[in-house]
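Late entry, evening session. Most of the bench is empty. Finally got around to the prediction I had been postponing all week. Sequence below, unchanged from the version circulated by S.P.
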Amino acid sequence: MYEFDYHKPGSLDEAAKLLSSEEDASVIAGGMTLLPTMKQRLAAPTSVIDLGGVPDIRGISTEGNSVVIGAMTPHNEVALDPTVRAKIPALAELAGQIGDAQVRNRGTLGGSIANNDPAADYPAAVVGLGATVRTNKREIAADDFFEDLFETALEDGEIVTQVVFPVPDKAAYRKFHNPASRYAIVGTFISSGPQGTRVAVTGAGSCVFRVSDMEQALASTWKPDAVDGIRVSADELNTDLHASAEYRAHLVTVMAKRAVQAAA
């Protein structure tokens, strides 16, 4: 690990100013991604800005027919929260499948989506539910937030503060996970409700993406067989030591069918 300056601001404004003014600064939430990469010297921020002392960006509440989750809320709180379990059980189930107990108690919603790991679970829920990402500057629709491998729409000095999840009529998440890391080799989140019918896939490509053919089929007939013959192209999917692009393309349909069955 290289030398760096450590800051623990007491307000969101202070954190944003530090992020804008400090050269090569990084924000740390739970540290489940940043710290390992710094230890391996794959990341070398000159300043680390800890959001642990910033109030009002952790916790779960309701807002109309939506569940609002603060960016610093750990995965385990989402998994066990009575409101989330009652209103969006698929989201609680997804959070309970992330990593191991240590990761679930330290890792945060905001950190996960801001990092935008291609195999992370939360991006599938954000896109699959048509959520809205709130920052210290604006609101960003889910479809506009995730841009590419480890890239988001966040600008300099912009920090995720909350995510607003509309409550669906039905939803489910199913993933084929790496047995060691529990990252998604392929995960499919499907929902139907105020945001329409949505199918979001994580783990398969450079970042989360939607499958419009499946959405159209499910909007007409909500049955696993409706997506049985739909295949995504393997041309732009990931190939690594865990799975080929062709295998991932096959798993997208398999996980979608399982998710439809679970949601039904």
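Two things to note before I forget:
Residues 166 and 222 are 20 Å apart (CA to CA).
The chain is about 35% helix and 25% strand.
Will write this up properly tomorrow.
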